[in-house]
Amino acid sequence: MGPIGFLLLCLCVPVLPVQFCTTTGSWTVCQGELMAFPEDIPTSVTNLNVSNNRLSSLEQNTLIKFVNIKKLNISRNLITNIHNKAFFRLTDLELLDLSFNNLIEISDKIIFNNVKLKWFSIAHNKNLKYIPHLQSKSLQRFNVSSCGIQEMNETTFQEVESIEILDLSFNEIKEIRDHTFDALTMLCELDVSNNELQSAQFINSDCSLSLTYLDISSNNISVLDWITFQTLLSLKKIHFHNNPWRCDERMKYVYENMLNNETTLNLQCVSASDNKKISWHEWYHSVNKVSSCPVNFVTDSPTTCSTSIINKCPKVSCSCDSSWVVFYVIAAIICLLNIVFMIVIFRKNTSSRNNSQ
Ligand SMILES: *[C@@H]1O[C@H](CO)[C@@H](O)[C@H](O)[C@H]1NC(C)=O
Ligand SMILES: *[C@@H]1O[C@H](CO)[C@@H](O)[C@H](O)[C@H]1NC(C)=O
Ligand SMILES: *[C@@H]1O[C@H](CO)[C@@H](O)[C@H](O)[C@H]1NC(C)=O
Ligand SMILES: *[C@@H]1O[C@H](CO)[C@@H](O)[C@H](O)[C@H]1NC(C)=O
Ligand SMILES: *[C@@H]1O[C@H](CO)[C@@H](O)[C@H](O)[C@H]1NC(C)=O
Ligand SMILES: *[C@@H]1O[C@H](CO)[C@@H](O)[C@H](O)[C@H]1NC(C)=O
């Protein structure tokens, strides 16, 4: 091929724009070590995945065009800063994944305008060190795992009342003050494992908890007070392991009511008399005063039981398992249709009988 042929070839091959984003199904995925949002994202995009790139910040206008976004995954980038109005126009947003970035700051107002946001993760932003005081009426799942959190207080979760699942694991929390979770009346799952807590007293903060799942494993808690657990009426699963449990009188009720269970027979506690580790099971059977109080009763003394304090608590509902509601509604509609159908048939029958008479 001579030089003229080469020139002709060059003219014939159009200059293709580089494409970073591909759309498969409902997701548009952008990849290529991107340091800025690429130009070829369709503005109609509903599910956008720009995870695993090298984005370092989100400005006020970065996302402004994408008003239809429902799910946005910006996980695994190098984001340190996000403008407090970066997501302001995304009023349909339901899921936002900011995990595995390098956030050092995040505005309390960050999801203020995202009235449909249900799922929000800032997990694995190790230098964040604090939890933003979010304001949301829709948020159900909030993940703050591995963010170097040391403290929070009763104002932290005051305006995110709809949270059902909260993950605070793998932080450096030493203390959770009473009333911290008081506003979270829908809370179903709480994970505070792998922190430095010395007490689980925070569960007792009010009568408001509807927890079904609690993880307090891998902390520095030595005593669990059964009175504390009185309020956890809905509790179905609890993880205790890897705490320096003491063989303490107060633990008896915990053992009786929660731990008469194969998995927990392996748990050990440190005996007060000789500092030796023994199994909870062994220890329990060596303590002769056995309480006969059933679950949900307060034990005034080892031998008398008074009715539960639970009755004083406001009734809370837990909707983690809301799929059943749909089922019941459908069943009710079918029942109703059946009844209507039967009435119609009955009427028809009687009227045709009347006619034939
Ligand atoms: C976001 O993308 C990452 C992969 O880069 C994935 O691990 C993560 O599950 C995604 N988040 C959601 C909520 O789908
Ligand atoms: C997002 O993209 C990453 C690749 O960058 C992929 O591993 C992940 O599965 C995608 N997630 C979703 C929910 O599309
Ligand atoms: C929170 O995020 C971490 C990291 O992505 C994940 O391993 C964990 O399962 C998440 N927690 C919840 C409750 O979804
Ligand atoms: C709670 O913490 C915030 C900062 O995170 C602080 O401004 C506020 O004063 C604290 N409130 C109480 C009652 O300590
Ligand atoms: C665990 O708690 C004890 C007090 O009960 C304290 O002396 C010790 O320093 C704590 N350990 C850690 C690792 O925080
Ligand atoms: C007892 O163990 C079973 C599984 O062996 C578990 O399903 C149940 O939740 C446990 N009960 C409590 C109170 O932890």
From TrEMBL:
Please give the start and end residues of each transmembrane region: 324-346
Q: Which Gene3D superfamilies match?
A: Ribonuclease Inhibitor (3.80.10.10)
One Pfam family from the UniProt entry?
LRR_1
- Keywords, A to Z? Leucine-rich repeat, Membrane, Repeat, Signal, Transmembrane, Transmembrane helix
The answer, when asked if Transmembrane is one of the entry's keywords, is yes
The GO cellular component terms are: plasma membrane
Record bears the keyword Transmembrane = yes
Signal peptide positions (record): 1-17
Report what the protein is called: Uncharacterized protein
**Species assigned in the record:** Gryllus longicercus
Lineage, opening ranks: Eukaryota, Metazoa, Ecdysozoa, Arthropoda, Hexapoda
